Amino acid sequence: MASQFYRIASIFFLSFLIVLLFKTPSQAKVSLPNDSIINIKEDYGARGDGTTDDTQAIQKAINDHIDSPFDVIIFFPRGKYLISSQIKWKNNDGQWGTAITLQGEHKRKTLIKLQNNAPGFEDASNPNAMIFTASELLSGNPTDGGKDWENLGEGNEAFRNFIKDLTIDTGTNNPGAIAIDYLANNGAAIENIVIRSGDRSGKIGLNMKRKWTGPALVKNILIEGFDYGIFLDEECCSVTFENIKLARQKVAGIYNNQNILIIRQLKSFNNVPVIQNFAAQGLVVVIDGKFKGKSTASAIENSGEIYLRNLRATRYRSVIMHNGETLPGKHITEFFSESYHLHSSSKTALKLPVKETPRLPKIPIQQWANVEDYGARGSSDTGKPDYTDDTAAIQAAMDSGKQVIYFPPGRYIISQPIIIAGNVRKVDFLGSWIGFPADFDRSKPVFRIEEGLHDVVQLKNMGPYWQAWENSHLGEVIMIEHDSPKTLILKDGNFQSYQSTPVSGDLFLENVVGGGIWRFNHPQNIWARHFNPEGAVHPKIINNGANLWILGLKIESPTTNILTQGSGKTEVLGAYLIPGALSRAPFLEDWPPAFVNDESSHSLIYATQAYSENQRYPVQIEETIDGETRMLLSDDVIRRDHLGSIIPLYTGYADTSDTDNLNLLNRQRLEKENIHKY
Fold first, then answer.
1. The dihedral sign for the CA sequence 296, 298, 301, 303
2. Domain named Rhamnogalacturonase A/B/Epimerase-like pectate lyase: which ranges (predicted)?
């Protein structure tokens, strides 16, 4: 009896200690308009009382709505929702689907919990997931999955799968439990959640080992317990992590076999390795990490390619064991497995200053304006998309004086630029699609952000019009024009394209997809976290004298990915590129370089994927400095699966003195930060 008491007391003390170590800013509750969500209590009778089994209510809500042509938000008010079996992304016919959001009201006060001793979760050798997201069904047979394996929901169309602002708890005595088996592509995210095991048991907290995982953003999560906190296996398609906290894993915090992991702000409280990266195809980028342990192992065990910056390990043998060799030292300022350059320049990364994405204050629901109240129609009376012109109604909503303008899920047509200014602080599209006629004036934007009353304006959750292949006019349209000195945030949306003006303020991108060209100009600052501009436009991103910082980039196009010119500075911390066949860009006669630097500065970390010889960049980087042009060829860099490439670090700087000053400022900042303990 006494031993059981001490065991329970020690678990409580450790949990309390972890909460103190990983304390995060308080979170306000999430409020959303009732006319645009599915309320799991009010609409499906879930109790959330911690006693009633809510499995059927939650599953039925997904079954009923996963075939919707638009995003579906299933809202969980505060409560403890007990489940006894897997929650899966399927319709009433058993077919897989996508574009479901599980949205909690509060990260720590909204809990989905697996019952203790749950049948089907007892076998660690045959693990089972509490929550199982999926790709859209492509074959049409109820028992099939996506493109690859039967009944696994696999595929590369797992668009807009979101899990936000709640806690997932696998209960006790469930050694075969996986909290979340997450498949996601292009504009999907897990954000502001806690994943925990009630007794440390369980196989994996966040599992991403199915085929076609990524690109996706995972931000602001704590994972406590399990054999592995996070597990990735397949080689496609990159995942961006930020502000990740790991505690009390039994085997490793993060395991990666072949994928591309980009991680910033990683904290670990563990007695096992923090990261294991074991395959040559794998590329891991870690920026800003604090690892507290009690182990004779190194904090990172690596056999693949890697880039590390500003990491500190306490009570580990060292920060990293690389290719079987323990590299001494408990602190790493910068380490990379290989580097390349074409001109004489600093051999360290650019290290642009980093700003966190601003947080908007809580805005009362009374300050939300529904565009349909002003005459817009996102769907017809039968629930199908509506194609009437909504321009005047949407502009009236923008001019209403409300702080938040929202679009109930639907398809809205705009024929003239919409001006966002005045008292507007946030525009939430809630997954709605924005369309425009083929004769839309290409010289004008769809949305123009002008100077208003607030220092920060956010646009979020625009729906999935994101591709711009050869038969589409989407890539020719400017979706967002930023004509204001105020800060703009684009978040969780398919925002097509963007251009700045000479007065543009700071820009923050989080989990953003786009099909057109993105144009940034001097003297703007851009911070992008999981940026996924798709489509065959050339070049995809133009940095003309701006400061462009990217944490996680994925592009699928045989065009130049970034052109840096006009003394611009571009830093890419991890990218995954799939050029595909040149025929996808018929306006090109020959392969362009993957990146171009014209009398400017860039540092790049990335990998490419090719499935045949005619799908690889012959030239990785073309760089002109002081009038001299040089090229880095694919044949001269690390191969990835024979046809792809890996660049753990490339540096090319037109002004080395300026770069040295930036590095000095960042070193001073990092030294100051390193004074702080856990």
1. negative
2. 38-271, 368-424
